[in-house]
Amino acid sequence: MNYKLAYAIGFHPWEDLADHPPFADKLLELVACEEDGYGPPYGAALDLGTGSAVWGVALAKRGWEVTGIDSVEKALRRARERIDAAGVEMRLVQGDVTALREAGVGSGFRLLLDTGTFHGLTDTQRAAMGDEVSAVAAPDATLILDCFAPRNRGPLPRGASRADVERAFTGWRITELEVADTQPDQIARLFRFDERFYRLRRK
Ligand SMILES: C[S@@+](CC[C@H](N)C(=O)[O-])C[C@H]1O[C@@H](n2cnc3c(N)ncnc32)[C@H](O)[C@@H]1O
């Protein structure tokens, strides 16, 4: 998917999911599991493919020290506006999720979140992202991924299966697999997103 073009023309429907309780509540429930028995502050979190920081800001509001990375400049401009409007602290980095160390995101992340980036990458990119995530994650880290089911959808993300996730994130194990409910989104129904949340812990 050409995200540079999408942001340039103002096409970013994924941002609306923050206002969709079945999706947002389930995602934040998964996040809450990582907060039990801690702070705030809960520690360092990395929002992979942060876009306009919809979820990064949500994490920052809850008490996470958030860094967001995205490759698209316009997305990061929107992210800066959202962060300032929310009055929270969140660090933004322009770079590629397949080269996190080169981008200088830092390390020791206890929570890593990806809502919609991994599932659109090529196999080679996925493997690189997996290696990079492992390199910057804390030893007790949790990774939450939101992926469409695998399917040919033209220019839209092709999705990822459980096996795709396991192949890319060796050294991690899937501890939860939940429906990411986007109903009644007509685009999701038309392109059969059949979206899922994966929760992974380091082995
Ligand atoms: C579907 S959007 C989701 C954005 C955000 N996570 C959200 O849920 O609102 C996917 C995001 O991943 C970013 N992205 C795609 N490939 C990337 C890559 N290789 N490195 C960094 N960001 C990438 C896009 O620019 C886009 O902002």
Ranges where pLDDT stays below 50 over 5 or more residues in a row are: none
Query: Which value, in Å, is the CA radius of gyration?
Result: 15 Å
Specify the number of helices.
Answer: 8
Number of strands: 7
The level of helicity is: 25-40%
The topology string of helices and strands comes to: HHEHEHEHEHEHEHE
Provide the residue-averaged pLDDT: 96
Structure description:
This protein is an alpha/beta fold and 203 residues long. The protein is 35% helix and 25% strand. It has helices spanning 3-8, 21-33, 54-62, 73-86, 100-103, 123-136, 162-168, 186-190, and strands at residues 43-48, 64-70, 90-94, 109-115, 137-147, 172-179, 196-202. It has a seven-stranded mixed beta sheet. The protein starts with a helix and ends with a strand. 41% of the residues are buried. S-adenosylmethionine (SAM) binds at residues 3, 14-15, 49-51, 54-55, 69-72, 75, 96-98, 115-117. The site of S-adenosylmethionine has 19 residues, from α3 and β2.
State the gist of this model.
The protein is α/β, with parallel strands linked by helices and about 200 residues long. It is built from eight helices and seven strands, in the order H-H-E-H-E-H-E-H-E-H-E-H-E-H-E. It has a seven-stranded mixed sheet.
For the structure shown, list the relevant keywords:
about 200 residues; alpha/beta; seven-stranded mixed β-sheet; 8 helices; globular; binds S-adenosylmethionine
